[in-house]
Amino acid sequence: MINNNRGTYKKNDSFKEVNKGCIGRTLKFGVVIILLLILASISVPSERRMKEAVINSSIICVMANLQHAEDESDDIVRNIKAMVTSVDPKLEKSLTSMKFYHQLNTIKIYPHALYSTARIHNVAHPSGTRVAIGIFGIIIPTVSMSDFLLRTDVIRKEYKNGEIIVNKPAVDTETEHLYDDDYNPYELGKQPRDLTPLEEE
Q1: Is pLDDT of 50 > 60?
Q2: Confidence of residue 65 (pLDDT cuts 50, 70, 90)
């Protein structure tokens, strides 16, 4: 009896050989990579989500540093925490430090084909410093206290035209009486009034 399925068997054997061979493995790997690229491109976090994640991580950073100064290892742990927890929106409004945070810092989102990055721009980082990356729908914050400003103080005496940058979570109000009523110590370029006593004639 003649087997009419001999050609079919040969095709199946050839397909199995290719599938198990180097070409087959390369094709499978290529398909997986293409699927991952497509998934990454359609799951890039939105600009709103990126900004909310940066602000959320910044608030947690400020609150942590109010208790004690933190180092790089603390930053890593805190940013991981910020990925899975969100602070109460009312807390942002109640923190005086966050008021100056928004005045002195600008969050900009830079979308890319497969991911998105967030950078904070201020006078200390004119070109911006990266504080978050979003990929596959996940936003990974990398915020540290040195990335943003909470206040600036004016350098006095011979350095009158410069500013000294101080990053403190708490706002110092003890020296408010040294300035004119319309003087804003957080507005760059303005100087405190001259307190040098007049010489007696």
Answers
A1: yes
A2: confident
pLDDT mean across residues, the chain: 76
Q: How many residues are there in the chain?
A: 201
Report the alpha-carbon distance of residue 157 to residue 77 in Å, rounded: 42
Rounded CA-CA distance 147/161 in Å is 24
**pTM: predicted TM-score of the whole model, two decimal places:** 0.66
CB burial of 118-133 (b: ≥16 within 10 Å; e: otherwise) equals bbbebebbeebbebbb
State residue 57's pLDDT score: 94
How many CB atoms are closer than 10 A to CB 155?
13
Q: Tell me which H or E stretch contains 153.
A: strand 151-154
Angle between helices 22-42 and 6-20 (to 10 degrees): 60
Q: CA dihedral defined by 68, 73, 75, 80, rounded to 10 degrees? A: -120
How is residue 80 annotated by DSSP? H
